[in-house]
């Protein structure tokens, strides 16, 4: 008997604004969660399931660059993303239209903000489609539910024994849900999920047991809950790395520090842009994950790095952290110099470092001090930077 082909639509076309916090500007599906983006975790949950034939991300038109930067391994089952519509319903329809030429037997529709769909949950939904036209995971409602017409006055108490909280993935026989979505697009009504469209179209929909870990990341506090879920299955340890760098002055008109150009009567001498702060910070990150030092990855003898922006080195270190399943907790940089004055530039440096590494600037500290006129720093012959990095990594045996 031929096995059924299963396609997955990962709906990631929302702006994800409600989950913003602490200066975060990335939509929630592109935020880092224990070292990996939410969307990458969601996609991987389905690519790792042997029954899945195709995975199709549906993304926002403004997020093409963000998607291209995701830490996704190449996989022949992962399709190029398609752009979504103005609503979730419209985005799902765009996904269904894209899948139509592939003629899958079944389709699972998954919210990008649910990164914890387990293999068992996927199997349960697919299993129910042997008897039903559609299926979805759901959890019983345990709280007493009140009905109110104005958000204040209680008019009724619902029978919670008849209620359940819907989750995704929601599964359907492809041709049936495609037809239902096409019909729904012609009526002036916004459906809350795909199962409601199936119900409206007269399809038989079953519920299977949901998973309490299968949370939807919606609000800022949900990230903390998600990290605790990951911590239960992926034990982590905190690693500390330190970095130190020094560069002398040379004739010039500006120095690069922390990724910021600061006008000055001299420049820093060295290979690349001689950004002593970013060099120390890169070494600290590399040290924390056991990846040598900056010279190992970017040898001074290699002419391609002459005059290069040191943000390139820092970004490379950040990608190594992500590739190892790590997460940057906080970074601390101290710059020791008599001149130029640095304190007023510290916020801009934190912003550059945060953007380069894809973390919030409030996880970065940049401090400046002098050497009280002592030594080569006191003689204004150069600048020293020291840095430390705290990184959570999967626990090694």
UniProtKB/TrEMBL annotation:
Organism of derivation: Devosia oryzisoli
Supply the InterPro entries for this chain.
IspD, IspD/F, IspD/TarI, MECDP_synthase, MECDP_synthase_CS, MECDP_synthase_sf, Nucleotide-diphossugar_trans
What does the UniProt record say this protein does? Bifunctional enzyme that catalyzes the formation of 4-diphosphocytidyl-2-C-methyl-D-erythritol from CTP and 2-C-methyl-D-erythritol 4-phosphate (MEP) (IspD), and catalyzes the conversion of 4-diphosphocytidyl-2-C-methyl-D-erythritol 2-phosphate (CDP-ME2P) to 2-C-methyl-D-erythritol 2,4-cyclodiphosphate (ME-CPP) with a corresponding release of cytidine 5-monophosphate (CMP) (IspF).
What family does the Swiss-Prot or TrEMBL record give for this protein? In the C-terminal section; belongs to the IspF family.
What's the protein here called?
Bifunctional enzyme IspD/IspF
Region annotated 2-C-methyl-D-erythritol 2,4-cyclodiphosphate synthase, chain positions: 239-397
Cofactor list:
a divalent metal cation
Q: What is its EC number?
A: 2.7.7.60, 4.6.1.12
Q: Where do the coiled-coil regions begin and end?
A: none
Q: In the record, what lineage is assigned to the organism producing the protein?
A: Bacteria, Pseudomonadati, Pseudomonadota, Alphaproteobacteria, Hyphomicrobiales
Instruction: List ligand-binding residues for 4-CDP-2-C-methyl-D-erythritol 2-phosphate.
Output: 245-247, 271-272, 293-295, 369-372, 376, 379
A GO molecular function assigned to this protein is: metal ion binding
Q: Which intervals of the chain are annotated as region 2-C-methyl-D-erythritol 4-phosphate cytidylyltransferase?
A: 1-238
Q: Where does a divalent metal cation bind?
A: 245, 247, 279
Pathway it belongs to? Isoprenoid biosynthesis; isopentenyl diphosphate biosynthesis via DXP pathway; isopentenyl diphosphate from 1-deoxy-D-xylulose 5-phosphate: step 4/6; Isoprenoid biosynthesis; isopentenyl diphosphate biosynthesis via DXP pathway; isopentenyl diphosphate from 1-deoxy-D-xylulose 5-phosphate: step 2/6
BP terms from Gene Ontology: isopentenyl diphosphate biosynthetic process, methylerythritol 4-phosphate pathway; terpenoid biosynthetic process
The catalytic activity, as recorded, is: 4-CDP-2-C-methyl-D-erythritol 2-phosphate = 2-C-methyl-D-erythritol 2,4-cyclic diphosphate + CMP; 2-C-methyl-D-erythritol 4-phosphate + CTP + H(+) = 4-CDP-2-C-methyl-D-erythritol + diphosphate
Checking Gene3D superfamilies in the record gives: 2-C-methyl-D-erythritol 2,4-cyclodiphosphate synthase, Spore Coat Polysaccharide Biosynthesis Protein SpsA, Chain A
UniProt site (Positions MEP for the nucleophilic attack): 160, 216
Q: Which domain of life is it from?
A: Bacteria
Q: List residue numbers at the site (Transition state stabilizer).
A: 18, 28, 271, 370
Q: Which gene encodes it?
A: ispDF
Q: Pfam families under this entry?
A: IspD, YgbB
């Amino acid at each position: 008997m031929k096995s059924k082909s299963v396609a997955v639509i990962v709906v990631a076309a929302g702006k994800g604004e409600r989950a913003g916090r602490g200066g975060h500007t990335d939509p929630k599906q592109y935020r880092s969660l224990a070292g990996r983006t939410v969307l990458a975790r969601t996609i991987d949950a389905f690519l790792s399931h042997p029954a899945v034939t195709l995975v199709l991300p549906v993304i926002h038109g403004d997020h093409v660059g963000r998607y291209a930067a995701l830490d996704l391994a190449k996989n022949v089952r992962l399709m190029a993303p398609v752009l979504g519509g103005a609503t979730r319903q419209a985005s799902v329809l765009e996904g269904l239209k894209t899948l139509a030429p592939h003629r899958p037997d079944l389709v699972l529709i998954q919210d990008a903000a649910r990164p914890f769909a387990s293999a068992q949950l996927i199997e349960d939904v697919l299993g129910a489609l042997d008897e039903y036209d559609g299926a979805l995971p759901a959890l019983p409602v345990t709280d007493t539910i009140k009905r109110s017409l104005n958000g204040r006055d209680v008019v009724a108490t619902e029978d919670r024994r008849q209620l359940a909280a819907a989750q995704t993935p929601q599964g359907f026989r492809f041709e049936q849900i495609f037809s239902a979505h096409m019909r729904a697009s012609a009526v002036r009504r916004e459906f809350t999920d795909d199962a409601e469209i199936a119900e409206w179209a007269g399809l038989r929909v079953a519920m299977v047991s949901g998973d309490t870990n299968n949370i939807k990341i919606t609000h800022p506090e949900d990230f903390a809950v998600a990290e605790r879920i990951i911590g239960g299955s992926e034990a982590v340890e905190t690693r500390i790395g330190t970095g130190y760098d020094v560069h002398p002055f040379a004739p010039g008109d500006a120095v690069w520090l922390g990724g910021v150009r600061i006008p000055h009567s001299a420049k820093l001498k060295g290979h690349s842009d001689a950004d002593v702060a970013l060099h120390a910070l890169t070494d600290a990150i590399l040290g924390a994950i056991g990846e040598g030092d900056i010279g190992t990855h970017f040898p001074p003898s290699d002419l391609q790095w002459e005059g290069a922006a040191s943000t390139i080195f820092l970004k490379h270190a950040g990608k190594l952290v992500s590739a190892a399943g790590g997460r940057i907790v906080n970074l601390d940089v101290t710059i020791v110099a008599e001149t130029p004055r640095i304190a007023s530039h510290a916020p801009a440096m934190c912003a550059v470092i945060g953007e380069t590494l894809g973390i919030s600037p409030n996880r970065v500290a940049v401090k400046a001090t002098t050497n009280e006129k002592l030594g080569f720093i006191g003689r204004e012959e150069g600048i020293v930077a020291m840095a430390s990095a705290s990184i959570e990594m999967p626990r090694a045996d």
